[in-house]
């Protein structure tokens, strides 16, 4: 089991409460500081410069969004790339004091989003409250940690700027608040990043480098740039100040729903659940904290079983914002003693949750933000019936093409979009009779396809594949019974091919 060092800055909160000043820019280097954190010393950003920047003359330059390597110096080896703020051998355990300090710091630049009762409360039997952090300016909760981290930079580091690797929300948050706080921001985005998010980062004023087949390659590139240019590399889910900033959402939840019973928190790199659980449990230790992650990337569950963060094989998921193969080391040691239960949800219920939020809450939420509701819809938490439960809707930056697919999958999961294959007469009126029967019970025909060549029955028969829209699952069952009553050869539902 990993043991974390407590990050207890004795004068930290006091100084901020007085005038919001930065931490002392003349404190020890990050290496010395990492040793001293156990004794309650400060962890500041500027030490990263002395610890990571050994070359005054950078070996890479960014021109027109493309990274060009200089031939004058050797490239930094991968083994030399490490983040002193996220050390697996010496993880940092964030404290409630820091979350409080972060709330004080960022209060003027972050929206205090509503936490309102859901229309789905009666339908689910759970008194649901949605914390709507997708309403932040850049569309996600990531703004909290990004702004706090940028505000904690010393003067020299603010001039040099920060760099991060991200395919979405972290990049957007840093870019937006970097522009607001006049801190240069460089974001390295993999080639799989949505074009919409790339363009938004540029609009916010960030230097955008699109390179790397995946986030892992983008991260190596970002850390190399940080080392060579003296910039601070900001891990989007594990930097201690990121965790403290994300925890401010927990303070708001505890104030807005003071008598809550549980919180269902999306889990990717574990930064959100670490900060949120720390804040909520400090305010009310009786609140249950549930972590929810997609089945296709259950990295937090794997970390708990192993007793430390471990690499988890992942697959593509609708909750792409949670697709982090290894949870953060600082996030893990902070969250582990505070999380009561970890759940995993299927793609089917993530899609259904997105659909329910659109239809009933009028909220467009990305897959990562919908997993908490998916856990309730999949009946994984019967113990929460009649309880007050908060679900953070943590992001709304869903790609429009993905949204369309989610809606269709959600309709299918809800039994309102069905498919079937039926063999009918190929003589005049055979298909007309089929469509008449379908319409007689109010079912709408969406798609139809005929197949003759590969049919092995009567030569005067045709196989018809249909996709139809129904009111609900009960209506779909009525259609299935009607077809089975009138036709001998029929395949209905997911097995209809």
Count of DSSP strands: 18
Mean of pLDDT: 86
Strand adjacency order, main sheet? 5-6-14-11-12-13
**Measured distance between first and last alpha carbons:** 49 Å
Helical residues, percent: 25-40%
Low-pLDDT residue spans: 8-74
Q: Radius of gyration, Cα only, in angstroms?
A: 26 Å
- Helical run tally: 20
Decide which structural class fits the backbone. Answer: alpha/beta
What is the 3D form? elongated
Share of residues in strands: 15-25%
Largest sheet: 6 strands, mixed
How would you characterize the overall build of this protein?
- The chain is α/β, with parallel strands linked by helices and 497 residues long.
- Helix content is 40%, strand content 18%.
- It is built from 20 helices and 18 strands.
- It has helices at residues 12-19, 30-36, 47-52, 96-106, 121-124, 142-151, 155-160, 169-181, 195-203, 215-229, 240-246, 248-256, 271-283, 299-306, 329-335, 347-361, 367-377, 400-413, 430-440, 473-486, and strands at 5-7, 60-63, 66-69, 92-94, 115-117, 127-131, 162-165, 185-189, 207-210, 232-233, 262-266, 288-294, 341-345, 388-392, 417-425, 444-451, 461-469, 490-492.
- The strands form five sheets. The chain has a six-stranded mixed beta sheet, sandwiched between helices.
- α1 (12-19) runs parallel beside α4 (96-106), α8 packs parallel to α9 and α12 (248-256) packs across α13.
- The two termini are 49 Å apart.
- 50% of the residues are buried.
- Mean pLDDT is 86; it is low at 8-74.
């Amino acid at each position: 089991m990993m043991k974390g060092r407590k990050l207890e800055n004795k004068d930290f909160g006091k100084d901020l409460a007085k005038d919001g000043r930065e931490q002392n820019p003349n404190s020890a280097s990050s290496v010395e500081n990492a040793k001293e954190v156990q004794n309650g010393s400060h962890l500041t950003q500027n030490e990263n410069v002395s610890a990571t920047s050994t070359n005054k003359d950078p070996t890479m330059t960014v021109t027109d969004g493309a990274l060009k390597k200089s031939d004058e110096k050797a490239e930094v080896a991968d083994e030399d790339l490490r983040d002193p703020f996220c050390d697996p051998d010496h993880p940092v355990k964030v404290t409630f004091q820091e979350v409080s300090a972060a709330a004080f710091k960022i209060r003027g630049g972050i929206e205090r989003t509503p936490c309102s009762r859901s229309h789905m409360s009666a339908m689910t039997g759970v008194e649901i409250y949605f914390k709507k952090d997708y309403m932040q300016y850049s569309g996600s909760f990531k703004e909290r940690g990004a702004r706090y981290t940028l505000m904690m930079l010393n003067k020299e580091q603010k001039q040099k700027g920060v760099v991060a690797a991200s395919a979405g929300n972290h990049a957007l948050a840093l870019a937006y608040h970097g522009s607001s706080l006049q801190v240069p921001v460089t974001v390295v985005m993999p080639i799989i990043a949505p074009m919409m998010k790339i363009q938004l980062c540029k609009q916010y004023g960030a230097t955008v480098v699109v390179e790397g087949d995946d986030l892992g390659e983008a991260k190596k590139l970002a850390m190399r740039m940080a080392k060579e240019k003296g910039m601070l590399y900001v891990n989007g889910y594990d930097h201690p100040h990121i965790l403290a900033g994300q925890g401010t959402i927990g303070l708001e939840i505890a104030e807005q729903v003071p008598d809550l019973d549980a919180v269902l928190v999306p889990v990717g790199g574990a930064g959100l659940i670490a900060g949120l659980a720390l804040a909520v449990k400090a305010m009310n230790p009786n609140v249950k904290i549930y972590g929810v992650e997609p089945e296709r990337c259950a990295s937090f569950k794997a970390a708990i079983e192993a007793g430390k963060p471990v690499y988890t094989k992942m697959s593509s998921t609708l909750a792409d914002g949670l697709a982090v193969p290894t949870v953060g080391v600082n996030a893990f040691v902070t969250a582990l003693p505070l999380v009561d239960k970890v759940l995993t949800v299927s793609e089917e219920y993530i899609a259904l949750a997105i659909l329910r939020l659109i239809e009933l809450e009028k909220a467009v939420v990305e897959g990562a933000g919908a997993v908490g509701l998916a856990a309730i819809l999949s009946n994984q938490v019967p113990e929460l019936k009649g309880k007050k439960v908060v679900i953070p809707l943590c992001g709304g930056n869903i790609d429009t093409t993905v949204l369309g697919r989610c809606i269709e999958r959600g309709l299918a999961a809800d039994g309102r979009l069905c498919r079937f294959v039926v063999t009918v007469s190929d003589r005049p009126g055979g298909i007309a009779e089929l469509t008449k029967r379908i319409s007689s019970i109010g079912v709408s025909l969406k798609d139809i396809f005929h197949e003759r060549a590969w049919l092995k029955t009567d030569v005067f028969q045709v196989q018809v594949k249909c996709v139809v829209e129904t009111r609900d699952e009960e209506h779909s069952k009525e259609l299935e019974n009607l077809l089975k009553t009138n036709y001998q050869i029929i395949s209905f539902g997911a097995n209809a091919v």
